[in-house]
Specification:
Elements (H helix, E strand, L loop, with lengths): L1 H22 L11 E17 L4 E19 L2 E13 L4 E2 L6 E2 L4 E18 L2 E14 L2 E4 L7 E20 L5 E9 L2 E11 L2 E11 L3 E10 L4 E12 L9 E13 L1
Antiparallel strand pairs: 1-2, 1-12, 1-15, 2-3, 3-6, 4-5, 6-7, 7-9, 8-9, 9-10, 9-11, 10-13, 11-12, 13-14, 14-15
Length: 266
């Protein structure tokens, strides 16, 4: 989808400009060694999504478990890969182009998630570091089947979702404490996706693809890194995503998320 392509291109542009800036730097010698990191993470977020031309909204609670690997290829530049499992819930999404209109109430749908992330620390002064951060995450849900209740004849439905999320912004970290590094992140963070639903009722069949997008494209994150040892660190973060209303259809609000990661560096 168009929004997914824009978000992916922004991340690619960020990575390209970051690498180009290092390639053009001749005053500093590149270090011979690289620093590697592996870790696990857990994330929960509740994202308000809109559909039917922003006239309808619902909540998309999501739980993520990820495995992360990264490498600091040169001082200040970290590139990483993400793989994991995600479970999203699409309750209250209404499909009206089927033989019988259906409101999704079948619970969470699990699936695979994978993506990439990057961080480039481009400015340091006193005890503060300022970094550009980027992430791109793609979720592909499994196909879920369920029986349609309340019909005189047998009816079944089958749903398959997918979504993408991007993050592109700035992070300010304070390094004045021992072993504790609090930080604040402000980022452009769009989410978009599609839910495809097939319906079969006796001899009637139908298919509907419903595109949706996150109501908020701005994220504010407050977190901190605590170093247990020289090699092991724990990161915890709370994210807030305010969103506006849509005319007379619904009011605005604030979405939230929580992230916890454990990383081993070698």
């Amino acid at each position: 989808m168009k929004k997914r392509c824009i978000a992916f291109n922004l991340l690619i542009l960020f990575l390209g400009l970051t690498c180009l800036s290092y390639a053009q730097t001749e005053s500093e010698d590149l270090p011979l060694g690289m620093i590697f990191g592996v870790g696990v993470g857990a994330e929960y977020f509740s994202q308000t999504i809109s559909w039917d031309d922003d006239t309808q909204k619902s909540s998309m609670p999501t739980f993520l478990i990820t495995l992360n690997a990264d490498v600091e290829i040169i001082d200040g530049l970290i590139l990483g890969a993400i793989v994991g499992y995600a479970s999203s819930k699409f309750n209250d999404m209404v499909f009206r182009e089927l033989p019988v209109s259906l409101e999704y109430q079948a619970g969470s749908i699990g699936g695979f998630a994978f993506g990439a992330e990057a961080q480039y620390t481009f400015f340091s002064t006193y005890d503060f570091d300022i970094s550009a951060v980027g992430q791109y995450l793609f979720y592909s849900g499994a196909t879920k089947d369920w029986a349609i209740p309340g019909l005189a004849v047998e009816g079944t439905a089958q749903g398959k979702p997918k979504w993408t999320r991007a993050v592109l912004g700035l992070c300010i970290e304070y390094a004045g404490f021992d072993d504790l590094y609090p930080y604040l992140t402000a980022a452009y963070s769009p989410l978009s996706g599609r839910m495809e639903l097939d319906e079969s009722i006796d001899s009637l069949t139908g298919n509907e693809k419903k595109d949706f997008s996150g109501r908020s494209n701005f994220m504010l994150g407050l977190g901190g890194l605590y170093e247990l040892t020289d090699s092991i660190g724990i990161t915890a973060e709370i994210d807030l995503k305010p969103y506006s209303g849509s005319g007379d259809y619904y009011d605005g609000g604030i979405d939230f998320g929580v992230v916890v990661k454990v990383r081993y560096e070698f």
